[in-house]
Write a structure and sequence with these properties.
Number of strands: 0
Distance between the termini: 42 Å
Helix content: 55-70%
Shape: globular
InterPro entries: Pur-cyt_permease, Uracil/uridine/allantoin_perm
Membrane topology: Multi-pass membrane protein
Subcellular location: Membrane
Keywords: Membrane, Transmembrane, Transmembrane helix
CATH superfamily: Hydantoin permease
GO molecular function: nucleobase transmembrane transporter activity
Length: 511
């Protein structure tokens, strides 16, 4: 071998060593921290270079608020006997509460830079946090599969409308879906897996793209329906409630609106851990929640009021209106926008949480990308269309898990804001030292569990016992309130808490 070849080989060897060292550095666990608790995706984010602006947070809500499920909920308020103004009032009550709750939750992520499973370690302990993360992740992974299935139904209808020859493929059943149904589901499943595999930064970019598309589509749909109804709408269905019964439904509607976001108020820190400042959270939440929800409510009232004026019927979802568009091109464009919306909602609401939960469960084996793939596979193998078509599963299993979200929120928020007053020792969240701040009793805080269990029991009873049905709209508040009060009185409020930032063990936020 000549000298030139020797030099080339040495250069390649040097580059290989450099690349290997870089990989090791990226995956290395800082001294004193546990590899069972720390990896690059669970580590706090550096303050410098955080990329989530007020616009990024606004587009989260621009997508999620306008989800088809939320429209179905708001439309259902009309069926309960509320008129247009009462529906707007119910959404306004919910929006005001959500703005406060999500802002407080968001501040926690911005200060510490950690995702929800790590945030849960503060109150529940370094190992007890698995309880909170798995409950949140379990709810999300099931809904990820269900929402992907619902989006595949829209895609299937769109494909048949554009390519009628595909209709024979929509007949028959393979494990509950037609051949075309499987193709549509798998195609959307792959799209979401690809997006998430590029990390939170790609999700931010997708949400930023999808937000304006959704707002423009829904506004255009409302304007079109308004014109179809002769530029006037029906403000009620002729069976409008009044008095105390009306106000109970208005407040109940607002409470249910908060319950719908019971998942998000828990793990909002998954997103705000990359927020540039508290101001960006407040500004993004302000435009994305009260203002955007007012727009959402206005669009809902126009769609329902216009349709009711035209034929006396209440629509079930905006997709019903899209399906009735006579022009194939416009129908295709609107359906595509609904698909963009559903994917955006699924990514933020139902994909991120289980991904972080699995990463937290197996930090030495799973990074964000691998955990996302595992979450997606679980969402596929559970055959979610069968879950969706089984009311018992939706009501008792997913409903039961959902009833636990309020108590979890109550414990975490009471601990952070009322007991610790925002003081957190971030490096200690990754330590298994017996005298560590968050080790408690073998890594579990018994006081948090003691506060959680009775609150969860009350929430489940209110949610499932028929005689308590009038209170069922307020289940989340009962659970969160009881858990918060329990924890506040059980906790040692005289203890001195350290406030140590995590910059020394932090990683870049774009990963």
């Amino acid at each position: 071998m000549n000298s030139t070849q020797d030099t080339a080989v040495q250069t390649l060897d040097t580059e290989d060593v450099a690349h290997t060292e870089a990989r090791h550095a990226a995956s290395a666990v800082p001294t004193g921290l546990s590899p069972r608790l720390y990896n690059r995706d669970l580590a706090p984010t550096r303050r410098e270079g955080r990329s989530w602006t007020a616009y990024s947070i606004f587009t989260l809500w621009a997508n999620d608020v306008h989800s088809l499920g939320n429209y179905a909920f708001a439309i259902g308020l009309f069926a309960l006997g509320l008129g247009g103004w009462q529906v707007l009032a119910a959404l306004g009550v919910g929006a005001a509460l959500l703005f406060a709750l999500l802002t407080l939750s968001g501040f926690m992520g911005q200060k510490t830079g950690v995702p929800f499973p790590v945030m849960s370690r503060i109150a529940f302990g370094i190992h007890g946090a698995q309880i909170a993360a798995l409950i949140r992740g379990g709810v999300a992974v099931a809904w990820f599969g269900i929402q992907t299935y619902l989006a595949s139904v829209v895609l299937r209808v769109l494909l048949i409308a554009v390519f009628p020859d595909l209709k024979p493929l929509d007949e028959g059943s393979i494990l509950g879906l037609s051949a075309l149904g499987w193709m549509a589901f798998v195609a959307l499943w792959i799209v979401q897996v690809v997006i998430v595999s590029y990390g939170m930064e790609m999700i931010r970019k997708y949400e930023a793209f999808a937000g304006p598309v959704i707002l423009a589509t829904m506004a255009a749909l409302a304007i079109w329906m308004f014109s179809q109804a002769g530029f006037s709408i029906a403000w009620n269905t002729g069976h409008e409630l009044s008095g105390g019964d009306m106000w109970l439904k208005v407040l109940g509607g607002g409470a249910l609106w908060v319950s719908i976001y019971g998942t998000f108020v828990l793990n909002f820190c998954d997103f705000t851990r990359s927020a540039r400042s508290k101001k960006s959270i407040v500004k993004g939440n302000f435009w994305g929640i009260p203002i955007n929800m007012l727009l959402f409510g206005t669009i809902t009232v126009v769609l329902v009021g216009a349709q009711f004026k035209i034929n006396g019927h209440i629509i079930g979802s905006p997709s019903d209106i899209v399906a009735s568009i006579p022009n194939t091109f416009l129908l295709s464009a609107a359906s595509t926008a609904l698909l963009v919306l559903t994917v955006a909602v699924n990514l933020m609401a139902n994909f991120v949480a289980p991904t972080y939960a699995l990463t937290n469960l197996f930090p030495r084996r799973l990074n964000f990308r691998r955990a996302a793939l595992v979450s997606a596979v679980i969402g596929l193998v559970i055959l979610p269309w069968n879950l969706y078509n089984n009311p018992a599963v939706i009501e008792y299993f997913l409903g039961g898990l959902g009833a636990l979200l309020g108590p979890l929120f109550g414990v975490i928020m009471a601990d952070y804001w009322l007991v610790r007053r925002g003081r957190v020792n971030v490096p200690a969240l990754y330590s298994e030292a017996r005298d560590g701040t968050y080790h408690y009793a073998r890594g579990i805080n018994p006081k948090a569990i003691a506060a959680l269990i009775p609150a969860a029991a009350v929430a489940l009873v209110i949610g499932f016992v028929p005689v308590l049905a009038p209170l069922s709209s307020f289940t989340w508040f009962f659970g969160a309130g009881i858990a918060a009060v329990n924890f506040y009185f059980l906790a040692d409020r005289k203890c001195t808490f350290e406030d140590v930032e995590g910059e020394a063990i932090a990683v870049p936020s774009v990963h």
